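User: Let's play a game. I give you a shape written as tokens, and you guess the letters that built it. Ready? Here's round one.
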């Protein structure tokens, strides 16, 4: 006789779900609290931020910190710099990453797996280790204090290649074989068969690369010297030097102005990012 399978009681199941939702709710609150505190502080006066830094209700609330922060430093110029650098880095990363991913995922040659593993191994090298050789190389090209120092190296992203490769391998090989029988070459198959089928993955990778490019601070700090070339994170760092780290509402208002586009982009594309991670095998089980 087979043993009777125990059926979980509704009360126990409801209690488990309640505990899980409570845990997730508290975790989410802890994660978003810094952003909430940033907005609340940006709405305070300097006096409130110094004598009631943890207060959750600004009294009185003021919006003047946002235009003051915008006009205190050349935010418009920095916004344009960050925007066009981000667009070029994303476009270049998707192009080079998709071509490399297709080569590693579909074109088999002797040593291809070893070459791919060596390519991925570069992700294990901290950026600080290659910073000095990269600076010397870029200086020989004459790209120091130029946006090219941020754009060209930013177009090579091993993680993007790995992620796109997972999507390339998910495309049925029969589609490519049918295109080969119809006389299409590898280049045509790449553009007309593979790319349309991995579009969701490209969107997800593009959002991740855009976030990294927009928030990058180390490389602009090392390679850029002129204020007119500064990106938003680098310009935002000047608030502390300009105001002595005292005017926290102005600093928080500048931070909110800086991160607003990427927060909106992430909220719009978060579903595609999570789905791409799950489809590529990075989401876990």
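Assistant: Ready! My guess for every position:
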């Amino acid at each position: 006789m087979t043993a009777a399978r125990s059926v979980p009681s509704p009360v126990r199941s409801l209690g488990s779900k309640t505990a899980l939702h409570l845990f997730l709710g508290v975790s989410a609150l802890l994660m978003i609290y810094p952003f909430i505190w940033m907005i609340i502080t940006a709405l305070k006066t300097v006096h409130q931020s110094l004598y009631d830094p943890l207060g959750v209700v600004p009294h009185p609330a003021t919006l003047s910190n946002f235009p003051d922060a915008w006009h205190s430093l050349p935010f418009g110029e920095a916004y344009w710099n960050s925007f066009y650098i981000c667009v070029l880095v994303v476009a270049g990363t998707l192009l080079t990453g998709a071509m490399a991913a297709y080569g590693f995922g579909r074109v088999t040659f002797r040593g291809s797996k070893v070459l791919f593993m060596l390519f991925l191994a570069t992700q294990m090298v901290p950026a600080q280790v290659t910073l000095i050789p990269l600076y010397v190389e870029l200086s020989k090209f004459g790209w120091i204090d130029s946006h090219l120092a941020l754009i060209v190296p930013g177009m090579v992203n091993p993680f993007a290649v790995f992620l796109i490769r997972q999507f390339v391998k998910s495309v049925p090989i029969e589609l490519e074989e049918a295109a080969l029988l119809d006389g299409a070459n590898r280049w045509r198959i790449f553009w007309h068969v593979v790319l349309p089928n991995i579009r969701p993955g490209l969107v997800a990778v593009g959002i991740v690369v855009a976030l990294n490019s927009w928030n990058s601070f180390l490389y602009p700090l090392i390679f850029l010297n002129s204020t007119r070339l500064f990106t938003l994170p680098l310009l935002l760092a000047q608030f502390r030097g300009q105001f002595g780290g005292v005017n926290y509402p102005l600093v928080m208002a500048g931070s909110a102005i800086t991160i607003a586009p990427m927060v909106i982009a992430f909220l719009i594309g978060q579903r595609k990012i999570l789905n791409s991670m799950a489809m590529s095998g990075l989401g876990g089980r």
